[in-house]
């Protein structure tokens, strides 16, 4: 039996900064900052200090907290995962673990406090933010580890991306309507589908590391089919929103097509789903552009 080799690498301030930034998944920054900014701007129609500070918080500190905690406490299992060590997850030297955790708290706290001051007395927004930050910690932190509770892992991951939008709506004083609920539900199911599909490629490394997930519980093929079903449900929900919302229903089609070839994949070959996951990551930029265009159209038609 071969022992896990703990990698070591260069040291120095530049290396430390690069490792901390890599741990925050720069490729995913937009996935949490954009929902907040879009929800706030569309609701208020203005650009102000709260928008800037809130976008900054959900752009970098939020992701450094979320993914930094994940990279630190998933270190042993990540050693067995060939995907780790790049944009899909940093392979942090153990000596960097404390630095990453401290950096997450140190960058998040001042921005978070300023955001709370700018938002003022808004109890609903406090509740939403508390749930969001709890989900960030609970996903990977020892004693909670929601990521190892099948189905709860995908639900919690979706909360990571939907909650910034809900917070933006809350601080902006958005009126809760059936249309808005349908839109947020669609986003939520899209998030569940995305996490579930992403877990498929890690079935074997997770099992070897003794980690449970929605994919290890249901198997690779069934999880892909669940993801396709949740994407389809997200699209159907968008059909009942006000115009031009129904146009967004078509945006789930590329995701379904990306996952479709893996609907019968075996657990032993689940690593092949990484090709579909890479397409998913590229699709997010294309979809984000189209969502932005739809938001602009909605503002023009309002």
Automatic annotation (TrEMBL):
Record keyword Transmembrane helix present: yes
GO molecular function terms noted in the UniProt entry: transferase activity, transferring alkyl or aryl (other than methyl) groups
Keywords recorded for this protein, A-Z: Membrane, Transferase, Transmembrane, Transmembrane helix
Pfam family membership, one: UbiA
Domain of life: Bacteria
Annotated localization: Membrane
Transferase found in the keyword field: yes
Membrane association type: Multi-pass membrane protein
GO CC terms of this entry: membrane
Annotated TM spans: 26-42, 49-69, 100-119, 126-146, 166-193, 214-237, 243-262, 283-301
InterPro entries to which the protein is assigned, alphabetical: Prenyltransferase_related, UbiA_prenyltransferase, UbiA_sf
Protein name stated in the entry: Prenyltransferase
Taxonomic source organism: Cryobacterium lactosi
Upper lineage: Bacteria, Bacillati, Actinomycetota, Actinomycetes, Micrococcales
């Amino acid at each position: 039996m071969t022992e896990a080799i703990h990698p070591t690498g260069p040291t120095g301030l530049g290396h430390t900064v690069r490792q901390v930034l890599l741990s925050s998944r720069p490729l995913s920054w937009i996935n949490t900052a954009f929902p907040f900014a879009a929800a706030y701007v569309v609701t208020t129609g203005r650009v102000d200090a709260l928008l800037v500070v809130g976008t900054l918080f959900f752009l970098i500190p939020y992701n450094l907290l979320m993914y930094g905690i994940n990279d630190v406490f998933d270190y042993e299992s990540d050693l067995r995962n060939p995907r780790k060590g790049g944009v899909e997850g940093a392979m942090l030297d153990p000596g960097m673990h404390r630095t990453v955790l401290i950096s997450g708290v140190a960058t998040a706290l001042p921005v978070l406090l300023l955001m709370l001051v700018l938002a003022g007395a808004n109890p609903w927004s406090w509740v939403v933010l508390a749930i969001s930050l709890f989900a960030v910690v609970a996903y990977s932190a020892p004693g909670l580890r929601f990521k190892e509770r099948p189905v709860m892992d995908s639900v919690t991951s979706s909360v990571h991306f939907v909650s910034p939008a809900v917070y933006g709506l809350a601080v902006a004083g958005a009126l809760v309507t059936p249309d808005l609920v349908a839109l947020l539900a669609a986003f939520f199911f899209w998030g569940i589908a995305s996490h579930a599909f992403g877990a498929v490629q890690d079935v074997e490394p997770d099992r070897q590391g003794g980690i449970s997930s929605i994919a290890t519980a249901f198997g690779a093929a069934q999880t892909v089919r669940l993801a396709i079903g949740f994407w389809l449900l997200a699209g159907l929900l968008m059909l009942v929103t006000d115009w031009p919302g129904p146009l967004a229903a078509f945006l789930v089609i590329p995701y379904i097509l990306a996952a479709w070839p893996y609907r019968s994949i075996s657990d032993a070959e689940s690593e092949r789903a990484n090709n579909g996951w890479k397409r998913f990551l590229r699709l997010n930029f294309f979809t984000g552009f189209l969502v932005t265009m739809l938001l602009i159209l909605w503002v023009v038609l309002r």
